[in-house]
Amino acid sequence: MASNISLKTLATLFLALALFVQGTLGAITCEHLDRDKCAFAVSSSGKRCVLEKHVKRSGEEAYTCRASEIEADKLKDWIETDQCVKACGLDRTTLGISSDSLLESRFTEKLCSPPCYGSCPNVIDLYFNLAAGEGVFLPKLCESQEQNPRRAMSEMRSSGYVAPGPVKPVEFMMVAPAQAPY
């Protein structure tokens, strides 16, 4: 009888432990990711992970992964595959998140290629939002990249793919600049 109770207790304890481990293994926390998995990852809260470099007082470089303020659309617990990183022309040692790479025709060519654009939704979501922040519609950029890469870059630089501005004129109020505290 005593061994029967201990088997039930052990079974219950094992089940509880299994559920706890299952629940924690799937959770990605940016601050716990290694340098080689940080860039292009999305935490369990939906925040994009970014790799940052810090120089210590000794002059030694240290890298940390942290959650950015940028949220991924409909993605959580995601570490981008090596295949997507390669197909999209990305680098795992990328520091921060920037739209600057959209101005490079070689990068945009890889980003818009079928192996990247058609197979890597995390990367496309990231660059779609970065492009939108610059007033560029990524599908239109990719379409023109396919037709004439040089023209696509020149039009993007000259804001050729910018969304239309407001219909009504914007009114500005003059406000005195804030002074820094002494």
TrEMBL record:
Keywords assigned: Signal
InterPro entries assigned: PAR1
Task: Quote the Pfam families the UniProt record gives.
Answer: PAR1 (PF06521)
- Residues of the signal sequence? 1-26
Keyword Signal on entry: yes
Is Signal tagged as a keyword?
A: yes
According to UniProt, the name of this protein is PAR1 protein
